[in-house]
Design brief:
The chain is α/β, with parallel strands linked by helices. The chain has one domain: TIM Barrel, CATH 3.20.20.140. About 45% of the residues lie in helices and about 10% in strands. The N and C termini lie close together (about 10 Å).
Length: about 300
């Protein structure tokens, strides 16, 4: 039996080719040209991940990437994107799974597409923007779509979005300032889940957040589900954070706070390169994880969430 890690990257992106071809729909104008070329090329992802030793990529195409933060969302376009994602998974079932794109802030419209995407198309979960139109994911308008995910037993990946007045953050600190702003929005979305009763309303629903929002744990640790007492007692809400890379110090913090059972390997590919099996193994070891915990973080947790059998 191989001792090599089975790696599942929970945080990867592809866009339909028409969203990257002529530049008119590139809402992420700050992305490098090499990234823009990769993000519309499934073969680039599959080839890079295969070479790096990554077993499975979990695809997301976010509402923000399709429509920006201010434009109206189009249900017909969202449906076509989900059809496209389902086609990619069908063509590469051993290499790819995909999360259905929905705009949860469209209420029952989102719920109808979630029903179709999780049921008819068989996609593995939902990806939702953390914020849109003045609302975070804990807002009641998002409940119908979340209820569908809960009924299907599928995870919800809450993805970062640009902060309001992102131009000020960029002026102050460049790209890192913008990333911090995106982390702020994801962190507030995390807190909105804790503060708006979603854990009680959907006790079996699994949420995934990007590590950009990790700063919110300072607030979460002040009480409630993540109080010191609850953490000491082993209380673990169904909330997961991805690693967004392989920095052992970040991994150690995540595992210490959330537990190895609630941490998922991820990159934000193609913003970050594929996880190298050798380097990830070294990083997980440097973070102090034993063999069982390494297996959980690398891929075991993600396969459990997604209902995708291991190797």
């Amino acid at each position: 039996m191989s001792n090599e890690l089975d790696i599942v990257d929970i945080h990867t992106h592809l866009w339909p080719a028409e969203w990257g071809a002529d530049g008119t729909r590139r809402i992420s104008a700050g992305l490098a040209e090499t990234v823009l070329k990769k993000i519309v090329d499934p073969a680039s992802l599959i080839g890079e991940f295969s070479s790096a030793g990554v077993s499975l990529a979990v695809l997301s195409t976010t509402i923000e990437s399709l429509f920006g933060m201010e434009n109206a969302t189009d249900p017909a376009v969202i449906a076509r994107v989900n059809d496209w994602l389902a086609g990619l998974v069908k063509a590469h079932p051993e290499r790819l799974v995909a999360l259905a794109t929905i705009d949860p802030f469209s209420g029952e419209v989102a719920a109808q597409e979630a029903e179709r995407a999780l049921g008819e198309l068989g996609l593995a979960g939902l990806v939702v923007d953390s914020y849109r139109d003045g609302k975070f994911i804990g807002d009641p308008v998002a409940r119908p779509a979340l209820a569908v995910a809960a009924r299907f037993g599928k995870p919800v990946f809450v993805h970062p979005v640009n902060a309001p007045q992102a131009d000020l953050l960029i002026a102050g600190a460049g790209k890192l300032g913008n990333s911090l702003g995106r982390g702020l929005m994801n962190g507030v979305a995390f807190l909105s889940v804790l503060e708006n009763g979603l854990l009680d309303e959907f006790p079996d629903l699994n949420f995934v957040f990007a590590t950009l929002g990790l700063g919110a744990v300072v607030q979460a640790a002040r009480g409630g589900a993540y109080s010191r007492q609850n953490r000491a007692a082993g209380h673990k809400p169904n909330i997961y954070f991805d690693t967004m890379g392989d920095d052992p110090s970040i991994i150690a913090i995540l595992v210490e706070f959330f537990g190895a059972e609630r941490v998922l390997a991820g990159t934000d590919w193609p913003i970050l390169p594929a996880l190298s099996r050798e380097r990830l193994t070294e990083s997980l070891t440097a973070a102090g994880l034993d063999a069982q915990s390494q297996s959980l973080v690398a891929g075991g947790n993600a396969r459990r969430l997604l209902g995708h059998p291991g190797q």
